[in-house]
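User: Hi! I have a protein structure encoded as tokens and I'd like to know what sequence might fold into it. I'm fairly new to this, so please keep things simple.
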């Protein structure tokens, strides 16, 4: 095993202002789970923040993209180059929506594909494997026209990425995960904007009862409300453990 099971939150920004004025860091998160090291949604800065944390790019086995938006993919090409040591290392895999690699909005540079051990496409309900890790595309989200998937990792860590809140989420997402990461970009529900809000996910949490929940991907509205206080209020209201992510936060898993 490479290291203990854990998640490193490189950044916590969501939405244009917090991300692109660098109010908070971005860059997604790194998971070490059962001997596999995965970088999820390498947004702007992931390349630099991983180095700052003393992580060796060459120890990353897999990159996973939930969708193509820049706040989730800006550093994917740099990381493919870094993780494969410029093509010398042949064991990096990429799991992503087809739209990340094919079509006019693709975000992965075609010439870098040959550096990868494999590229596999997420589809709702599909399980992809990388060593001892199973990545499931739990549900396709509705997210401003982008092909977007909520994910689970070994049925332990569930990542509810950006998207509009839909009733179907209650049916599709698993019960009682060990850890649920939710991109609660807003506090209040906003009509016509395909992002999750704290108001909408309260019922979801009460039904699904994750052992621990981390809220992240904060807009200026959430940033201004103090996510730590929001998490505390959510904990009180749901009777569950809810944590707000902080830039660089490390969370140990069992
Ligand atoms: Zn997005
Ligand atoms: Zn996003």
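Assistant: Happy to help. Inverse folding works backwards from shape to sequence: for each of the 254 positions I chose a residue that suits the local structure. Here it is:
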């Amino acid at each position: 095993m490479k290291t203990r099971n854990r998640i490193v939150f490189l950044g916590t920004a969501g939405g244009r202002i917090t991300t692109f004025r660098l109010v908070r860091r971005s860059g997604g998160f790194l998971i070490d789970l059962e001997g596999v090291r995965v970088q999820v949604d390498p947004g702007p800065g992931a390349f630099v923040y991983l180095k700052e944390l003393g992580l060796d790019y060459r120890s990353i086995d897999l990159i996973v993209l939930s969708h193509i938006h820049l706040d989730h993919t800006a550093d994917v090409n740099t990381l493919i180059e870094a993780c494969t040591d410029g093509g010398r290392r042949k064991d990096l895999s990429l799991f992503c929506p087809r739209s990340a690699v094919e079509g006019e909005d693709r975000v992965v540079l075609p010439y870098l594909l040959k550096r990868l051990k494999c590229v596999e496409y997420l589809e709702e309900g599909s399980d992809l494997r990388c060593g001892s890790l199973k990545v499931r595309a739990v549900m396709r989200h509705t997210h401003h026209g982008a092909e977007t998937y909520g994910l689970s990792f070994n049925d332990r860590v569930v990542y509810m990425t950006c998207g509009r809140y839909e009733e179907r989420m209650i049916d599709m997402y698993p019960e009682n995960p060990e850890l649920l990461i939710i991109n609660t970009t807003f506090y209040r529900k906003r009509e016509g904007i395909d992002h999750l809000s704290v108001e909408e996910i309260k019922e979801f949490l009460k039904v699904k009862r994750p052992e621990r929940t981390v809220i992240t991907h904060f807009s200026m509205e959430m940033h201004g409300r103090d996510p730590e206080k929001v998490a505390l209020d959510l904990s009180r209201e749901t009777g569950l453990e809810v944590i707000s992510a902080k830039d660089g936060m490390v969370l140990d898993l069992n």
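A useful reference point when you look it over: Residues 14, 69, 71-72, 162, 217 surround zinc ion (ligand 2) (CB under 6 Å). Feel free to ask if any position seems puzzling.
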